[in-house]
Design a protein that fits this description.
alpha+beta, eight-stranded antiparallel β-sheet, 24% strand
């Protein structure tokens, strides 16, 4: 295979997964392409490039003027055919971009070639991080498609953080004649908005193309950077600037020249904003043959500015930086200081990056999990690489809760929102661990309180704020979040259980211990294992009085702390935490379980305010009305969808039951019965709207037995996908398979491309991180359990047990698991595609009773089989290492 043609058509269509979308299901598709912490751009379902969010902040709805792909093809002996390689949408430029065909906006319809001939038909298939758009047109002699992606390799942060988008244009010639083809890409130099933009033709390490820069700003400016179009293909045509003229001269000259020849004439002018460059790749395709043309659209804007923070003052900056925003160097920019360097790296390593990314995609989508489950998991992984997430200078991960059109929404890696997320911990465990390290290093106060938002740059103090949203909870004077503070403790256990890194745990343990025991000074003063008083939480309000949700988080933290204390040799702490765990579980079952679900006992006094502020509520007066009435924004006798959040986390993390197991199962069925609506018609919500009449959705809370407060907590009537996934995961884990899957199917029915973008589940803004809870469906459906400190792992599929396959990941390795159960025998195959998994005990379902044989890398391994009613345990005398070179195979039966 030549360097200019590194991909075959077989490569590009190797995956299963979600079905192709077409018609109106393409209307809202905007598939994000970019690396972790690099920013992204998006390709619509019809082939447009929109949402150019590459310059260190969100930029929803944006386009790059005149940026589009053009295909010119000439069958020997016939006239050439020229088309914009996109399907026209009667909604305008496609997806969420501007430019509707309404006549509004003088000249707007000519942007991105809107008035030029387009391909007549297309189909979109997304298997994140890959998408493929196939085109057809009755007059076009070739059949084109484009595959777009950015490398994503589990555990490999650097290769998943490349600032660029890779486009692989595959062109097939079905005719019996030779066809000459030219694929041209345009890019407007928008590095800086002044008259100082430069475009040059550059070459480095086998890639060549248009390198766009600006000389107005200094390198330390957040507006300084570069972008460009590059390829490893060698037969090229290019121009550094389109014709400069009046009215429509530039696009007219481009289209006339390309339509006639498939080529462009190189031009260069003095620097001027508005210049558009074109890079074209030319190929001759034999009858029945094909060609793949690679294009790298790369960028680098090294300096990140905390545009959402106050200007620096003489108290926190040197004189040179007073009046500026805090700023730092993006992690990716240390490796890729400019767009040409990024493109050269892609060019040198494209085959390896493609293959490893394809291995991950293949492992995920060759699973036997339902299509809509794979869709839910894969589509929301994109959030990790959206503008909601940032990589700080030394590789620390940081995130907004979501992002608005032009800025981040709710800063600070909010701990109580991050409780729900699962994907990062399994796919990029070093980044998840960095969140914990950052939280305990910078957010923990001497008394044990934790700020639930992190200030950046790390180490600076956030403004003392009690305003709703935005920076709420970031200041020293704001009370801590009960669910967030307890949830971080549970997550530390998860990271340890995934990695087995005892040194890492020992380093954090004193801080973890301090943050847990703070509960005895504030939320659990009587040390009975049940939280009381003011409990700030993810609903941006305070719960007053004991309730299932916050107490469950506390019990989960205690359960995690017992395990961690034993691991570091703190037996006294383990004994104390165990006593509280048992006491709290019993008391919560007695106090809070009403026979159907766990409730809140509202404190009518509501005087237990934060020890650090006299402000009782972010959201207004705390009292419901007249003196003596209950506090506002509570749920009381309501059935809260989040009432078992702590138990759900404990189940995934292998911490066991926090409450009576029968109560847990009964409460789950109550949540599904009362809160899951197959059709929201007739549902009244005076709050935000994320699902509408005619659609399904899980309400945050209902009051099946009456008692709804006049002013219930502020989001109670809303539908949040992150909570829908959390409840679905828990239902599945407890054996309510159909119920859990129906919720997942309902979520993805709402995000099917017609009314909403499948790659952008919204809450407070776009790409809301709570939706990363969807990854929990993988361990729930595969029955995957992990305890790296004990070298113990397990699989117990909940569906399709006879022929099952699923992706898996831990803190040290990732791969796929497959099992087959037939009348003639049973096999289980554990494959590592990256890293190393050290196993001393493997737990399988009871299907594997009766003993069998074990081979590692084809060699027999001594193992002891032990059967129980729940599991078959396979133990090894010494831990064995499953690696990409040595897969583990278990055979049982005949």
């Amino acid at each position: 295979m030549t360097p200019s043609e590194p991909y075959s058509k077989k490569d590009l269509r190797r995956f299963g997964g979600p079905k192709a979308l077409k018609g109106h299901h393409l209307d809202e598709v905007a598939f994000p392409i970019g690396g972790i912490g690099t920013g992204t751009l998006s390709i619509t379902g019809r082939g447009r490039l929109i949402d150019w969010e590459i310059q260190n902040r969100p930029n929803k709805g944006s386009i790059n003027t005149f940026c589009f792909f053009t295909l010119w093809a000439k069958e020997r002996g016939k006239e050439p055919v020229t088309r914009v390689l996109a399907q026209r949408s009667n909604r305008g430029l496609g997806g969420s971009g501007p430019g509707h065909f309404s006549g509004i906006g003088f000249g707007a319809n000519r942007l991105a070639g809107a008035g030029l001939p387009h391909m007549q038909h297309c189909r979109f298939r997304g298997r994140y991080p890959f998408c493929e758009i196939s085109f057809s047109d009755p007059l076009m002699p070739v059949v084109p498609s484009v595959t777009a992606y950015n490398p994503l390799i589990p555990h490999n942060v650097d290769d998943s953080s490349i600032p660029g988008a890779v486009f692989l244009f595959h062109i097939e010639n079905p005719t019996d004649r030779e066809v000459e083809a030219s694929l041209l890409s345009n890019l407007h130099n928008t590095v800086d908005g002044d008259f100082t933009n430069y475009t040059e033709f550059a070459e480095k390490d086998g890639v060549r193309g248009l390198f766009m820069t600006s000389r107005k700003e200094k390198p330390e400016s957040p507006r300084w950077g570069s972008m460009g179009l590059f390829t490893t293909h060698t037969d090229l045509t290019h121009t550094r600037a389109w014709v400069r003229g009046a009215w429509y001269d530039n696009l007219t000259a481009f289209w006339n020249e390309v339509s006639a020849t498939g080529r462009v004439t190189d031009r260069i002018y003095p620097p001027l904003v508005g210049d558009v460059g074109t890079l074209g790749m030319i190929a001759t395709i034999p009858p029945g043959g094909s060609v793949t043309l690679p294009l790298y659209l790369t960028w680098s804007f090294p300096t990140m500015e905390a545009y959402w923070r106050p200007d620096l003052t003489e108290d926190n900056a040197d004189p040179e930086h007073i009046g500026q925003k805090p700023k730092w160097t993006n992690y990716y920019a240390k490796r890729f200081p400019d767009a040409l360097t990024a493109a050269a790296y892609l060019g040198r390593h494209h085959r390896r990056l493609y293959e490893k990314t394809a291995e991950f995609t293949d492992a995920l989508f060759s699973s036997t999990l339902p299509e809509y489950v794979l869709d839910a998991v894969s589509s929301q992984i994109s959030t990790i690489r959206s503008t909601s997430c940032i990589m700080l200078e030394n590789g620390e991960f940081y995130n907004f809760e979501g992002c608005h059109a032009q800025d981040g929404c709710c800063e600070g890696s909010c701990s109580h929102v991050w409780n729900y997320t699962q994907a990062l911990a399994f796919l990029f465990p070093s980044l998840e661990r960095s969140l914990k390290e950052t939280a305990y290093r910078y957010n923990l106060f001497p008394d044990g309180r934790m700020a639930f938002r992190t200030a950046v740059p790390l180490g600076v103090k956030m403004a003392e704020s009690t305003a709703a949203g935005g920076s709420a909870g970031v200041g020293e004077a704001f009370h801590p979040a009960a669910d967030g503070q307890m949830g971080v403790i549970m997550q530390v256990w998860r990271e340890y259980a995934l990695s087995g890194d005892r040194d890492w745990l020992a380093k954090l343990w004193p801080s973890v211990k301090k943050s847990l025991e703070y509960a005895w000074e504030y939320w659990d003063k009587d040390k009975d294992g049940v939280m009381e008083g003011l409990q700030h939480n993810t609903y941006d309000i305070e719960f007053y009085g004991p309730n299932g949700m916050i107490t469950g988080m506390y019990l989960g933290a205690l359960a995690a702390a017992v395990r961690m204390a034993l691991s570091v040799g703190d037996d006294a702490a383990a004994n104390e935490y165990r006593r509280l765990l048992e006491s709290g579980g019993r008391k919560a079952d007695e106090m809070l379980f009403n026979g159907k679900y766990f409730i809140q006992i509202v404190d009518p006094d509501a005087k237990d305010l934060s020890p650090v502020t006299t402000d009782v509520s972010m959201s207004g007066d705390v009292m419901d009305g007249a003196e003596g009435m209950e506090p506002k924004y509570q749920y009381g006798s309501g059935c809260l969808s989040d009432q078992l959040l702590g138990q759900c986390m404990a189940t995934i993390f292998g911490l066991g039951y926090l409450f009576d197991s029968d109560h847990v199962r009964t409460a789950l069925t109550s949540i599904f019965t009362h809160n899951w609506k197959r059709d929201l018609t007739g549902h009244a919500s005076c709050q935000r709207v994320f699902a509408v009449e005619g659609e399904p959705g899980l309400l945050l809370c209902t009051w099946p037995n009456g008692g709804r407060p006049a002013y219930p907590f502020v989001y109670s009537d809303e539908v949040w996908t992150g909570i829908e996934y959390q409840v679905a995961v828990h239902l599945i884990a407890e054996g309510f398979i159909d119920e859990g899957l129906s919720i997942v199917k309902g979520v993805r029915a709402r995000y099917d491309g017609r009314m909403r973008n499948p790659y952008n589940e919204m809450e407070c803004g776009s790409h809301y991180v709570r939706a990363l809870a969807s990854y929990g469906l993988i361990p729930a459906l595969s029955g995957f359990t992990f305890n790296a400190p004990d070298h113990t792992y397990g699989f117990a599929p909940k569906i399709k047990r006879e022929n099952f396959a699923s992706f898996w990941a831990t803190g040290t390795a990732w791969g796929s698991y497959r099992q087959r159960i037939t009348a003639s025998g049973k096999t289980a195959l554990l494959i590592a595609l990256g890293g190393e998994l050290e196993i001393k005990r493997l737990l399988l379902s009871p299907d594997y009773r009766g003993g069998g044989s074990v081979t590692l890398g084809g060699r027999r391994v001594d193992a002891a089989f032990e059967d129980t009613p729940e599991r078959t345990s396979i133990s090894f005398i010494e831990p064995i290492a499953v690696t990409p070179a040595s897969q583990l195979l278990i055979r049982c039966g005949r």
